[in-house]
Amino acid sequence: MARVYLGPAGIPIGAKERKRSAGTIDGIRYVSEVGLNAMEVEFVQGVRMTREAAQEAGEVARELGVRLSVHAPYFINLCSEERDKVEASLTRLQESLDRGEAMGATVVVFHPAYYGKLGPEGCYNAVKDGVLRIIDWMKENDIKNVKLGLEVMARKSQFGGLEETFRLVKEINHPQVVAVIDWGHVFARNGGSIDYRAVLNMWREYFGDQPMHTHFTCVKYRKGEWVDEHEPIDTNNPPFEPLARELGSEDIEITIINESPLLEKDALKMKEMLLKYNNVLVGLH
Ligand SMILES: [Zn+2]
């Protein structure tokens, strides 16, 4: 039985239908009302939230028992050949971490890099350097709770295979740096297959019983390859139910953020499957 935090990637669709200008706090309330207990705050197009707004959102989330996390901007590449792009990437991470800390988020997830001309090994070192600089910055700025999460990526041109991500996080070995599994990305990068049991075993091997932060979405098959385009979980690529079943026999804490286009609807379908295999949603029935 896994202890699960489950919710949408961003403000639920229902909250926006109810109120067109729904913000983060409306989203958190909605998540709690429908019976979920997590939400990822999306800074994917840029960090446009003040520190005060982040604090307020954090207070509401704490009151309602909703676990918050943050997705950092997409425009990050720690392996860029252009120095100013690397610097801008670090700034975006710092802004995201600052707001994440203010809202009491558990983790700031980011897409580390494209291999580019550096290639896998050079990029590995560049990502490591960038993360080490962020660790220093967190220390200097009293960011001591929120974690930095390196996401496992879908494309072969991106840094972020399962093995290299785990290896780097393990090598850095800092309590505020974690690996974030995106189950859909693992499936896509692996040519349309995933062995959940093997991934969970690999997590144990590297990180023991450390809580997991993960994303789930189904992805699309187009022009002969699996691409990172998000599809509803009914499309079953990959299927969610076998993951729910495997988690049923795990004694671990896991957050699952639904990134399918049906944000809260699919999260609620996942909830049903998780409960069917005796998992527990923390704070909910
Ligand atoms: Zn992502």
TrEMBL record:
Gene Ontology BP annotations: base-excision repair
Cofactor: Zn(2+)
InterPro entries, alphabetized: AP_endonuc_2 (IPR001719), AP_endonuc_F2_Zn_BS (IPR018246), Xyl_isomerase-like_sf (IPR036237), Xyl_isomerase-like_TIM-brl (IPR013022)
Signal peptide from the UniProt entry: none
Domain of life: Archaea
Keyword list, A-Z: DNA damage, DNA repair, Hydrolase, Isomerase, Metal-binding, Zinc
Xylose isomerase-like TIM barrel domain sequence ranges: 29-267
MF-aspect GO terms: DNA binding; DNA-(apurinic or apyrimidinic site) endonuclease activity; isomerase activity; phosphoric diester hydrolase activity; zinc ion binding
SUPFAM superfamilies: Xylose isomerase-like
PROSITE patterns from the UniProt entry: AP_NUCLEASE_F2_1
SMART domains per the UniProt record, alphabetical: AP2Ec (SM00518)
Entry similarity comment: Belongs to the AP endonuclease 2 family.
Protein name, entry field: Xylose isomerase domain protein TIM barrel
Organism for this UniProt entry: Vulcanisaeta distributa (strain DSM 14429 / JCM 11212 / NBRC 100878 / IC-017)
Phylogenetic classification of the source organism: Archaea, Thermoproteota, Thermoprotei, Thermoproteales, Thermoproteaceae
